[in-house]
């Protein structure tokens, strides 16, 4: 089969690799009909190279049709399924509490990490990802989400990651009807976090330097600002700041030349050395997080949806403690949120605006060019969907 493979920093290529096979009775094999490039994939493309191996198949936003099913998968061939990015058993202590990203069956204990993830480096199990013609799905009897056949892929695909991550970000922010919320970053997660919060009755402000991203959010009733907005938003919230702030940017925030240089240096080190540096002295670009701490009202909540990976990040604990700020974060526990999201996805009125999200579609073979376009934020690129069958 053909698959998108990691070959080095800022270098992916589409290669012919062996077809996946059923390894366990709870596995299924799907023919991938749609797969997306996620902002988290750019961390592999740019920062997390020391944890990647040449030839790794990437991608964790995937859906398709089951073509082969294990004897205990409880799923028949021909079912249309969405594949959540975490791989979880569904029955361990963590899964029974809805914490599927901490699944004790698939935890990557070698690196002290949570549940294994599709296509996401040694840190999360080096499991082949879904930017490919076919995908093996472990623990499919719990993991795979069966969906209907009437709606196009793009109405369901983002149940794999984007929508549950955004929903959890809003839930962790504790947003209620009538509350105010600020969102840092209007990439895919920020777009839907803002839309979900507005759908739930919050007043939403969003900050992003890219005019095309602001324009997309504004089409869904979001008040947007460029990078210099803290004082403006504070003025709109009676001088206090919003009740909650979502950081949907994470380690890719701009405005930190020292940390940017550190990322570049780590990427050039031999893998074993780079891994050790990242695990013990890793730094993130923290511009969005610092902005969130500054902006949120006293007694408010910060919800981190953007991915962070540093172990030596300097955090302003005095400000957090003095302002009595609550902070919640973590990978999305996808299955805990699907019941809330599926009716919205299938609603004919499209309340979350799924018809206004995908900016670029391309065959799988064009993935390298699409990664570059997405990483450089060129051509108004906000979300890329790849079609392995075209």
UniProtKB/TrEMBL annotation:
What Pfam families does the annotation carry? ADH_N, ADH_zinc_N
Report the cofactors: Zn(2+)
**Is Transcription set as a keyword in this record?**
no
All copies of domain Alcohol dehydrogenase-like C-terminal, residue ranges: 188-252
Which keywords describe this protein according to UniProt? Metal-binding, Oxidoreductase, Zinc
Instruction: List each copy of the Alcohol dehydrogenase-like N-terminal domain by range.
Output: 25-141
UniProt lists the family membership as follows: Belongs to the zinc-containing alcohol dehydrogenase family.
Protein name (database record): Alcohol dehydrogenase catalytic domain-containing protein
Organism for this UniProt entry: Flaviflexus equikiangi
């Amino acid at each position: 089969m053909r698959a998108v493979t990691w070959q080095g920093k800022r270098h992916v290529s589409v290669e012919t690799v062996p077809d996946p096979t059923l390894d366990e009775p709870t596995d299924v094999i799907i023919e991938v009909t749609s797969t997306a490039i996620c902002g988290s994939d750019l961390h592999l493309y740019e920062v997390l190279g020391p944890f990647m191996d040449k030839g790794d198949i990437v991608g964790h936003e995937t859906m398709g049709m089951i073509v082969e099913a294990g004897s205990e998968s409880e799923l028949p061939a021909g079912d249309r399924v969405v594949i959540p990015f975490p791989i979880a058993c569904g029955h361990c202590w963590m899964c029974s509490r809805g914490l599927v990203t901490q699944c004790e069956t698939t935890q990557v204990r070698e690196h002290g990490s949570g549940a294994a993830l599709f296509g996401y480096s040694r840190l999360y199990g080096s499991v082949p990802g879904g930017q490919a013609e076919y995908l093996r799905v472990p623990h499919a009897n719990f993991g795979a989400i069966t969906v209907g056949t009437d709606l196009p892929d793009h109405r369901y695909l983002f149940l794999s990651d984007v929508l549950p991550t955004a929903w959890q970000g809003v839930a962790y922010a504790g947003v209620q009807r009538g509350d105010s919320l600020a969102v840092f970053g209007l990439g895919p997660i920020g777009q839907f976090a803002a839309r979900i919060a507005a759908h739930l009755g919050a007043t939403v402000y969003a900050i992003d330097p890219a005019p095309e991203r602001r324009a997309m959010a504004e089409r869904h009733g979001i008040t947007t600002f460029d990078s210099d907005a803290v004082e403006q938003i504070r003025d709109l919230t009676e001088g206090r700041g919003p009740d909650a702030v979502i950081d949907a940017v994470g380690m890719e925030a701009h405005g930190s030349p020292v940390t940017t240089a550190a990322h570049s240096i780590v990427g050039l080190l031999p893998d074993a050395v780079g891994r050790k540096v990242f695990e013990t002295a890793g730094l993130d670009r923290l511009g969005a997080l610092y902005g969130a701490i500054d902006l949120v009202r006293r007694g408010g909540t910060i919800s981190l949806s953007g991915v962070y990976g540093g172990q030596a990040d300097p955090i302003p604990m005095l400000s957090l403690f003095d302002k009595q700020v609550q902070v919640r974060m973590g990978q999305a526990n996808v299955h805990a949120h699907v019941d809330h999201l599926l009716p919205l996805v299938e609603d004919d009125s499209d309340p979350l605006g799924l018809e206004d999200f995908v900016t670029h579609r391309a065959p799988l073979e064009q993935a390298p060019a699409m990664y570059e376009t997405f990483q450089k934020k060129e051509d108004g690129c906000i979300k890329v969907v790849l079609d392995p069958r075209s």
